Amino acid sequence: MKILVTYFGAFPGVPVNPTEPVAQKLQQRYKHRFCSEQIQCVIRELPVSFARSSQQLIQILDEENPDIIISLGVAVGRSCISIEHVAINYDEARIPDNDGDQRRHQHIRAESDTAYFARLPVPSLIARMQELSLPVEVSYSAGTYVCNHVMYELLHHYAHTPDIYAGFIHIPALTEISFQEFSASAETGGVEGTKSIPTLDESLVVDTLETILNELVQYQKR
After folding, report:
1. Are 40 and 3 in contact (CB under 8 A)?
2. pLDDT in the model for residue 221
3. How do residues 171-217 score in pLDDT, each as one tens digit?
4. What does the alpha-carbon distance between residue 70 and residue 22 come to, in Å, rounded to a whole number?
5. Which of 68, 209, 93, 197 is nearest to 145 (CA)?
6. pTM
7. What is the pLDDT of residues 124-140, one digit of tens each?
8. Which end of the chain is more exposed for a tag (fewer CB within 10 A), N or C?
9. What whole-number distance in Å separates Cα of residue 97 and Cα of residue 218?
């Protein structure tokens, strides 16, 4: 079984993206399990670019042919790990992407569905994480920046493909990374107007994401 985890680099308001070290730690943990359980975790960086993220995502999906796909993003100002429930067919950004593209009131795919729901058992995952007292919540908005764009493209790609688990998870700022220069933006999924930026320890975030992935592996085996 193959798990694909994607992450992003820096973008305006986030000079160091915490999804990169988190993805790296997840991959390290699954390396120790590959021989015994035949579970492989592949990580790939996606550009913070509306146009190039679409192109590279589809290329990666075709190359890797994963069974489970989780894309990670950071939402500055959130205090919990957020499992995104829905992606909308809409790009809107007050800040440009890393290619200088500042999209305003634009459909991602003009002739496609208005929205796609995550290909994840979201209610069951949330209930299980709450049983384990892990800091996880459901979110009904992934923003309108590149995170939502990637989630929409991911779900569009698998819209008619059975037996694939695919979705997007936002993580908050990490305690270990200096966040003084971070700024929250609603279109990136962040929470604007917070007096202090909430953080979680990296180890807790990695533990929680590994638990979510383990649950998805069990669902995939059924």
Report:
1. yes
2. 85
3. 999 998 876 678 878 778 877 777 788 999 999 999 999 999 999 99
4. 12
5. 93
6. 0.96
7. 999 999 999 999 999 99
8. C
9. 37
Q: How far apart are the first and last CA of the chain?
A: 13
CA atoms within 13 A on the CB side of 145: 26
Q: Max CA-CA distance within the chain?
A: 49
| Active-site amino acid positions | 84, 147, 170
The pair of three-digit structure tokens given for residue 196, joined into one six-digit string: 């202090």
Euclidean distance between CA atoms 8 and 214, whole angstroms: 22
Torsional sign, CA 106, 108, 109, 114 = negative
User: Which one-letter DSSP state was computed for residue 6?
Assistant: E
What's the mean per-residue pLDDT of the chain?
A: 94
Tokens representing residue 7 in the block: 């992450």
| Distance separating alpha carbons of residues 74 and 83, to the nearest angstrom | 12
